Amino acid sequence: MKYYDKLIFECSREGRCGYSLPRNAFPAAGELPAALRRQAPLALPQVSEPDVVRHYTNLSQMNFGVDTGFYPLGSCTMKYNPKINEEMAALQGFQGLHPLMPARLTEGACKVYEEMDKALAAITGMYKFTFAPCAGAHGELTGLMLMRQYHINRGDLKRTKVIVPDSAHGTNPASAAVCGLEVVEVKSLANGRIDVEALKPLLTDEVAGIMMTNPNTLGLFETEIGTIAALVHAAGGLLYYDGANMNPLMGVVRPGDMGFDIMHLNLHKTFSTPHGGGGPGSGPVGVARKLVDCLPAIRVSAFHGNFGVILRAYAYILALGQEHLRKVGQYAVLSANYIKESLKDVYKLPIEGVCKHEFVFDGLINDGAHDDVPGATTLDVAKRLLDYGFHAPTIYFPLLFHQALMIEPTETESKETIDAFIEVMRKIAAEAAQDPNILHDAPHNTPISRPDETTAARNPILKYQENS
Ligand SMILES: Cc1ncc(COP(=O)(O)O)c(C=O)c1O
Predict the structure, then answer these.
(1) Which CATH number does the domain housing residue 254 bear?
(2) 320, 341, 373: which is the final residue of a domain?
(3) Residues 157, 206: contact at Cβ < 8 Å?
(4) Alpha carbon distance 415, 428 (integer Å)
(5) How many domains, in total, are found in the chain?
(6) How many A from CA of 244 to the centre of ligand 1?
């Protein structure tokens, strides 16, 4: 352990402090009732300013982020977030806003919402957006509430089922259940796309709609989307588009033109605002013209959503413009296909063909299993990548494959970075074939080695414990 890896409480020395204020600068707190007065000094660490700076700087370096390295976390679109977005969000006129300010002082913010509404409508083919939802899953819930409201407004009360493909992101069935809808699963074909023949008998007059993401969570474009949209509409249902996978489509294809009626976008992914660790996010929901009357009926958050995230996304759209937004998807698709083709002789590729912005391997072709030594798993590969300075891809999702390893490079990585990643992935495959134990014990070079994940989940230690 390095000296500065110590916890801040362990650096504490009686009487040491990081500031000096003039004596008697503040009036005594004599008027406070005795019962409210502190009886013993607050147990804060007593440390100098350099101790504090070094402690937090070292802590920050133990973390991994897009600003420190390649982060190919499938389904999460961990693209680089341009710093110009931060500068725009930090402008005094925006930063000092409060939602209760009078309308005459918030005209600029209203203009941003108005312009974003227009921009997102142009990008997606939707008619109108609400910016209230604060995450992708929150957008899903909002969209499904709108779907229900649409049927209720038409007096069609028995539509309480929503169809979700077996490849769907976990939040889709979860949002449907939270919305009080019954989830009906539709199977995928061996080529990873929705089985249209299996869908047909599910389309009864109890179906409110279908939730889909396209490209789906395998990174594959649902080529039958035109037929699916026609079938769902003919059965009286609506189509919901999970726009978390919008990155490869921007400026190329619009969900509205594919037949979708409602959708959310993950501004914190596709539109380049920092995310991870649970937020902040923004999941604006767009609707087709026929649903616009339902919008005011649904209130999902106080005020107007996460304005700072919307602002960053607005700066991103303006900085790129129409021409370069289109290139985002093209480069993201190129990068993903380049990695897939460069590694498919050492990692199992369950579905051949061109992918969109991400793809899924099903573990190693040669996992090195021999005698009593178990082979290297997807978890082992992910942990070993950390040793080489790369963030791990998403693992064990989607659930369609046992050893799923889902890679999404995004458009913001250089060819050199991608080549370095490919080289390391090949090196790990060679290590596994030679001696899988190197991988079983990984990571070896990170501040924390492999934790016992069962104990960590069942018996978490969430706060500082003296002598722990
Ligand atoms: C396909 C898909 N749908 C929905 C979501 C949910 O978005 P959020 O994490 O913002 O709630 C994600 C998040 O990664 C996703 O990948």
Answers:
(1) 3.40.640.10
(2) 320
(3) no
(4) 20
(5) 2
(6) 6
